[in-house]
Design a protein that fits this description.
Alpha-Beta Plaits; 22% strand; 4-stranded antiparallel β-sheet; 5 helices; alpha+beta; 44% helix; 2 domains
Length: 151
């Protein structure tokens, strides 16, 4: 996969990283080597059509972890909805045996896990930075980092 990067738009610069965990329906063991390979190929196609960059994809038989970068106009829910609908349709099409295994006609469970991932530090680091606003020393260090990011 690829590495995250700054995404420059006309009015913003962003590095939005999300960790998603999507379980298969009924937590069935459906991610064989072939299905995982198909899933990754589908995600490559999704990345070409939408502003969703898959940095890592890892499956563990009944669920998949995604490390995804996207743009501010896509909410985490929108990203998950796109991933679930496109991958389910294509996996069922390419692996009819999986559709038989998941007799309900759905590939993914309704729920999911999402967590934001920071390129600049954990919650404690960002908390200290925000609290230190107006402090000359802290300001200079972060200002340089932000300037490098934007220009």
């Amino acid at each position: 996969m690829t590495k995250s990067e700054y995404i420059h738009k006309s009015h913003n610069v962003s590095v939005l990283l999300y960790h998603f965990v999507l379980p298969s329906k009924y937590r069935r063991v459906v991610f064989s080597v072939e299905v995982e390979k198909t899933l990754k190929e589908i995600c490559i196609e999704i990345a070409k059509r939408y502003e969703i960059n898959f940095l890592e994809i890892g499956s563990d038989k009944n669920h998949v972890h995604f490390l995804v970068q996207s743009v501010p106009m896509y909410s985490p829910t929108k990203i998950v909805t796109m991933i679930k609908s496109i991958t389910a349709r294509e996996i069922f099409k390419q692996h009819p045996e999986v559709k038989k295994q998941l007799w309900g006609g759905e590939f993914w469970s309704d729920g999911y896990f999402v967590n934001t991932v920071s390129k600049f530090g954990d919650e404690e680091t960002i908390t200290r930075y925000v609290r230190a606003q107006g402090t000359e020393k802290e300001y200079k260090v972060w200002y340089k980092a932000i300037q490098l990011m934007l220009f």
